[in-house]
Amino acid sequence: MSEVSIETGAYAKIILHAAKYPHCAVNGVLLADAGKTKEGGRNQSLDIVDAIPLFHHSHYVSPMAEVALTQIETIAQSENCVIAGYYAACENFRDNIVERCPGLKIAEKIVEYFPSAVFIVVDNKKMVQHLDSPAIKVHKYSDGKWRPRESLIVFQSPYVLETVSHLLQKGVERDLVDFDNYLDDQSQDWTNQGIEKLVASINASTLDDDDEKEIR
């Protein structure tokens, strides 16, 4: 059975994007490590290494979406990655299903070119108590429909939920930049390298703390 592993930085950006705009639907694109992608058609395993926040206003296949996807493709190729999925959070707190998500045409466009693509839906209800369990639902495309595959989720680090909860407590979602923000101010970094570095520093600090505990 195929697995969908998600690195901390990718998961963090998904959750921070939803947290920054709790009154809006949000969406974005997922990148997978091309070198770690195992062949298997629609059933290949994926290592999701990054999430690129797209919109909180314009969620559909528009000229701006085409521009964004073209730029993301360039970024992916330069980092030996592939566009391997889509994520979204619904505007309504209780709407946590694919059918209510924005920009379904974008997801369909991605799976057309990458049959094993995943669709991650943010579970708004689980965002409230984030340490308890992942606040996402993973889906794969089968027989013309996105179907839930919760059992496939694997986190690369045991500290993912703790790290992202820490970021939320510090209000880091305010620093996240999506493509809408970039269109308003092109000096902003919509790849969010600053958040990537912050996540890496928190992970390193957590590992150091654990090493100290073991020594003691």
TrEMBL record:
<dbReference type="Pfam" id="PF03665">
    <property type="entry name" value="UPF0172"/>
</dbReference>
<comment type="similarity">
    <text>Belongs to the EMC8/EMC9 family.</text>
</comment>
<protein>
    <recommendedName>
        <fullName>MPN domain-containing protein</fullName>
    </recommendedName>
</protein>
<dbReference type="InterPro" id="IPR037518">
    <property type="entry name" value="MPN"/>
</dbReference>
<dbReference type="GO" id="GO:0072546">
    <property type="term" value="C:EMC complex"/>
</dbReference>
<feature type="domain" description="MPN">
    <location>
        <begin position="4"/>
        <end position="145"/>
    </location>
</feature>
<dbReference type="InterPro" id="IPR005366">
    <property type="entry name" value="EMC8/9"/>
</dbReference>
